[in-house]
């Protein structure tokens, strides 16, 4: 068990690590050849030019102004200068609201920390319960535990202080959450009202289109919406299964990268042709000329792409029973997206279309009926992943203790028993071991989310974030507290009567706070400081810039660092909310460490959002209900655990008062859900009508159909500079593909009964009040 000295050593190591990271960052960011890495967002926006293009030769690569190095922390105040409205224009509402999660943590825990240290710490400290327990060899404890509720004897009236503080913490947390929910909801509505025109404002995604023997999917979609939305339907784009084509295009891109690399390498030294082996990793196999080989492979892949593209365009089986349907107004799109289209609730399912950048195209090809089976399989897989992970995590953490190391490697006993090494192992190693063990988890959870079939990147990240949060709760929090407490108190369990075991557990659970303090310092202090270095993007940029970059477009792709990563960042923050709320009334010692995390992370990620991260999509803060719900869940968990803990302390009079807390918190959550959540799941028709009216007054001659017609065409059909096949298949075949999606002759036998002609096909295509079947 970590002592106060161990915590001090761990704090020193992590503070020193963070300081070193900041110094290295200050040196790297000032070098001109790293400018595109540490200020990539400004380059992608076209607002910054490379300092390597002018000045003396040496100054193009090395900053010789030594005065700049003296102000190595000036990026911190600069990160705080940009006002929030300007930051929304610069980075988007999603990024700004993501930052507000850190700010929410500061607003919640700063007053709680002051109150807990002013009231609870003196109440806990002025007892000798743990000293007596140690003398009786009943439990193990440290000086830090004397600041916790464990140091208060059973039946003590002092527990009323913790009950009153629990109510105070709950009331304050709920108040801050409500005000923040209201603020974010208003920001979202204001952002949507002021946002520039985007295709997703006029478009809905229609899924589970029923099959029809007389008409293709495209004809069926046109027919349905001309009848049911005759005054508002504009155009549509059917969804095709182009996954194999996309794989071939990606394969060609990789081959082109290797060809570029070898051509650049040969251009620098053309005295000898470059030879490569075709075996595994180039270690064995037939030796061939690298440039000739990749030219031949690219030519072969190009032919496969042409054949596959022709098949996708002409094969009816490649058309999925889904389509992106666009309307003349936002109001009409809102009505369609938020209403049931037919009496059968499993057909013609409509939802808001993701913005084109947010669409995850491979999953649009998954049949809708397969989604339920896929999600059930992933629920089962996640259950086993979560609970079977407890065993290896417990094993790894057991090795990160003095006893574990001595047991596995007895010859290290002399080294680990040194006071300093013991402090390092107990105060630093458990946290770093847990963090390293979880390094691959986000990738696994994202693969699972993709398998489930979500059609947008934002929904993939939100599902992955939800599962990451559950995993952290079970394996990082519950497993560490419960199994850790049980193992540490094992000797006490074996030498006492059964009716004393709940009491020992109640005393032991707060003692695990020392482990979480070390974890917070490793992950929340040094880990956040290490984020500023951007080591992976830095290395990848220089490798790509050296071996692959030929054009300015290549350089932009090489320096793009991606987005902030909601699926990994938000669950990480939620773990700190959980720890803070659980341990605030139990062990207030933990709160200052959490405050340092929220403050440091807010500054670091504000800097990264301003200068580095390039937002992949804009959901207008649609994720906030998830954030709010998880903080509420953490609050309820903290209340239930406090009830259990006080129950082991025989504080019987406290039980009725604590039972009211979760009930009140759930009631508060239901109020917020009814009052504020609709702004995040539905678009008010009043807002849509106002925006349509303003736009029609400002741009009366807007060609909206031309703007929307190709917005949701699959990317492999849109063409690009790097796709040579576009000359042959891009414009002509795409035009054919779009025409097939929009200009359709109606083939239904019942067309003589249709009350209105098709204004899209230019023919009279009357149909029945739509049922999908001939009458």
Automatic annotation (TrEMBL):
Membrane spanning residue stretches: 12-30, 101-120, 159-178, 376-395, 428-447, 468-487, 516-535, 575-605, 653-671
Biased composition (Acidic residues): 721-730
Location, primary (coarse class): membrane
Domain of life: Eukaryota
Start-end of Polar residues biased regions: 752-764
NAD listed as a keyword: no
CSC1/OSCA1-like N-terminal transmembrane domain segment(s): 7-180
Residues annotated as domain CSC1/OSCA1-like 7TM region: 374-646
Pfam family for this entry, one: RSN1_TM
Chain residue ranges for the region called Disordered: 719-775
Boundaries of every CSC1/OSCA1-like cytosolic domain copy: 201-363
The keyword Membrane is assigned to this record: yes
Name used for this protein in its record: Calcium permeable stress-gated cation channel 1
Origin species: Brassica rapa subsp. trilocularis
């Amino acid at each position: 068990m970590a002592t106060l000295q161990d915590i001090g050593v761990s704090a020193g190591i992590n503070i020193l690590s963070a300081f070193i990271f900041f110094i290295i960052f200050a040196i790297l960011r000032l070098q001109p050849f790293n400018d595109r890495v540490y200020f990539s967002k400004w380059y992608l926006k076209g607002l910054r030019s490379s300092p390597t293009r002018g000045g003396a030769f040496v100054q193009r690569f090395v900053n010789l102004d030594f005065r700049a190095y003296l102000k190595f922390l000036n990026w911190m105040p600069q990160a705080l200068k940009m006002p929030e409205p300007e930051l929304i224009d610069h980075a988007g509402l999603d990024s700004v609201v993501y930052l507000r999660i850190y700010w929410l943590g500061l607003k919640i825990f700063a007053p709680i920390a002051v109150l807990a240290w002013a009231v609870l710490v003196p109440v806990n400290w002025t007892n000798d319960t743990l000293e007596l327990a140690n003398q009786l060899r009943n439990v193990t404890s440290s000086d830090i535990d004397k600041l916790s509720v464990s140091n208060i004897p059973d039946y003590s009236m002092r527990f009323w202080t913790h009950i009153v503080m629990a109510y105070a913490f709950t009331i304050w947390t709920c108040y801050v959450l409500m005000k923040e929910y209201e603020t974010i909801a208003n920001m979202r509505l204001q952002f949507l009202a002021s946002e520039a025109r985007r295709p997703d404002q006029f478009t809905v995604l229609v899924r589970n289109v029923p099959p029809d023997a007389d008409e293709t999917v495209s004809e069926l979609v046109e027919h349905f919406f001309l009848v049911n939305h005759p005054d508002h339907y504009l155009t549509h784009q059917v969804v095709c299964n182009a996954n194999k084509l996309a794989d071939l295009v990606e394969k060609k891109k990789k081959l082109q990268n290797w060809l570029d690399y070898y051509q650049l390498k040969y251009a620098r030294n053309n005295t000898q042709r470059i030879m490569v082996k075709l075996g595994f990793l180039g270690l064995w196999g037939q030796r061939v000329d690298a440039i000739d080989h990749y030219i031949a492979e690219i030519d072969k892949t190009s032919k496969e792409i042409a054949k596959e593209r022709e098949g996708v365009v002409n094969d009816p089986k490649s058309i999925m029973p889904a389509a992106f349907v666009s309307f003349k107004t936002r109001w009409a799109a809102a009505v369609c997206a938020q209403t049931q289209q037919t009496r059968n609730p499993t057909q013609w399912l409509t939802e808001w279309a993701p913005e084109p950048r947010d669409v995850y195209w491979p999953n649009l090809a998954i049949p809708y009926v397969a989604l339920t089976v896929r999600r059930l399989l992933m629920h089962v897989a996640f259950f086993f992943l979560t609970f079977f992970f407890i065993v290896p995590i417990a094993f790894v953490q057991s090795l990160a203790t003095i006893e574990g190391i001595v047991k596995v490697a007895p010859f290290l006993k002399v080294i680990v028993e040194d006071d300093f090494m013991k402090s390092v192992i107990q105060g630093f190693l458990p946290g770093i071991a847990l963090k390293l063990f979880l390094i691959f988890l986000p990738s696994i959870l994202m693969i699972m989310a993709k398998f489930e079939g979500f059609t947008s990147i934002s929904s993939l990240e939100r599902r992955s974030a939800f599962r990451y949060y559950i995993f952290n709760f079970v394996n990082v929090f519950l497993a560490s507290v419960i199994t850790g407490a049980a193992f540490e108190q094992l000797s006490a369990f074996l030498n006492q009567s059964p009716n004393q075991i709940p009491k020992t557990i109640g005393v032991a659970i707060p003692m695990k706070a020392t482990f979480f303090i070390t974890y917070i310092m490793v992950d929340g202090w040094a880990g956040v400081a290490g984020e500023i270095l951007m080591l992976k993007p830095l290395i990848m940029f220089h490798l790509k810039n050296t071996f692959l970059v030929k054009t300015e477009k290549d350089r932009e792709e090489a320096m793009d660092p991606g987005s902030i990563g909601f699926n990994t960042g938000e669950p990480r923050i939620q773990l700190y909310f959980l720890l803070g709320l659980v341990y605030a009334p139990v062990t207030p010692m933990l709160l200052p460490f959490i405050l340092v995390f929220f403050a440091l992370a807010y500054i670091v990620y504000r800097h990264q959002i301003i200068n580095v991260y390039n937002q992949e999509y804009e959901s207008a803060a649609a994720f906030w209900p998830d954030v709010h719900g998880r903080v509420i869940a953490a609050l309820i968990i903290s209340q239930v655990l406090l009830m259990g803990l006080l129950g082991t302390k025989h504080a019987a009079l406290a039980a009725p008062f604590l039972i009211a807390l979760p009930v009140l918190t759930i009631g508060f959550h239901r109020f917020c859900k009814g009052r504020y959540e609709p702004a995040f799941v539905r678009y008010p028709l009043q807002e849509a009508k106002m925006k349509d009216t303003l736009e029609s007054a400002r741009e009366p001659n807007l060609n909206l159909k031309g703007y929307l017609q190709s917005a949701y065409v699959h990317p492999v059909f849109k063409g690009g500079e790097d796709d040579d096949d576009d000359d042959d298949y891009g414009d002509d075949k795409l035009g054919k593909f779009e025409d097939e999606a929009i200009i359709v002759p109606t083939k239904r036998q019942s067309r003589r009964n249709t009350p209105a002609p098709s204004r899209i096909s230019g023919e009279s295509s009357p149909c029945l009040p739509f049922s999908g079947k001939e009458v």
